[in-house]
Amino acid sequence: MKQDKYIDDIIEYISTIEKQKISPFFKSKVLARLAKNTSEETSFVFKPAFVIAFAALLLLVNTILISYPISNSDTSNQNNVSSTEQEWSDDYSINNYSSIYFYDDKQ
Amino acid sequence: MTESVEFIALLKKRDDSAFNQLLELYQHMVYNSILNIVQHEQDAEDLSQEVFIRIFKSIDSFRGDAKLSTWIYRITYTTALEWERKKKAGKAINYFKNLIGINEQKDSIASFDHPGVSIENKEMARALFKALSQLPEQQRIAFLLIKSEGLSYQQASEIMNKSIKSLEGLIQRAKENLKLQLNNFYKNN
Fold first, then answer.
1. B75: which chain A residues are within 8 Å (Cβ-Cβ)?
2. By a Cβ cutoff of 8 Å, what residues of chain B touch chain A?
3. Model pLDDT for residues A3-37, shown as the tens digit of each residue
4. Which of A24, B19, B41, B173 has its CA 20 to 30 A from that of B183?
């Protein structure tokens, strides 16, 4: 009986606890945080996610622009070189392998 | 005044003086409500700031179906309970880290001394807050709204979006659970 009364008193004690006053700087802290949040919202361009995404996009575009012309020009260069060699050997009627073969055969 | 349509319209326009007035009126209420849940003064102040930031950002979604104070209470308790869930999740991770020995941080259970409690009642208040922290969320909120905030059953039922009958059930179960917890305290003292 005494125990029940004591426990009931503890439970009811919460209603007697004095309410606390928050720090006098609380209001200014909230207003400062709000001002900071508002300025962050306007400068979304500088958010890390945006910056990383933009950098990745820039890298991708650059890679595409750089790699395509090089591969095309490489192929055309190779074609030019081989066509020049062919033209030169045709002009002078030179077939390297056959010349050597006939020369050896005569020996 | 703060429940008036004009005042709410000013808040929606982000009027500085209206927001100042709102802060002035509700800062202590928000702080005390959170303090009872998180049981840590600095955390309670940080979370109170968070509550007002949320109010400011989401005031446009306030339709006026409930009282402004009811809406603020809901944001307050939601913020506090979210924080508590995160903290519990962090503790669980720490516990498993301790089990496999990769955590050097030891999880200490700190007892809470409410700043509004007199020295002679500190022991009793400590036991009460420890018992409170072990109650299920709904029972705890119901108990705090009625017993600590001193709200009527009608007001508390609006905040919790429950009928008065189910609120009475929650209070009843909260008291029973608290008694079970506090029995041990009585035996040890």
1. none
2. 20, 23-24, 27-28, 31-32, 35-36, 45, 48-49, 52-53, 56-57, 114-117, 121, 124-125, 127-128, 132, 143-144, 147-148, 150, 175, 178-179, 182-183, 185-186
3. 888 889 889 999 999 899 999 999 999 999 988 87
4. B41
How far, in Å, CA of B94 to CA of B88, rounded? 10
Domain ranges for chain B: 1-109, 111-189
Sign of CA dihedral A75, A78, A82, A84: positive
Chain A residue closest to B54 (CA)?
A34
Class of domain B1-109: mainly alpha
Distance in Å, alpha carbon of B124 to nearest chain A alpha carbon: 7
* Secondary structure letter of residue B59 according to DSSP: G
The CATH number, out of the four listed (1.20.210.10, 1.10.10.10, 3.40.50.720, 3.40.50.150), of the domain defined by the range B111-189: 1.10.10.10
Per-residue pLDDT reduced to its tens digit, B109-139: 467 888 888 888 888 889 999 999 999 999 9
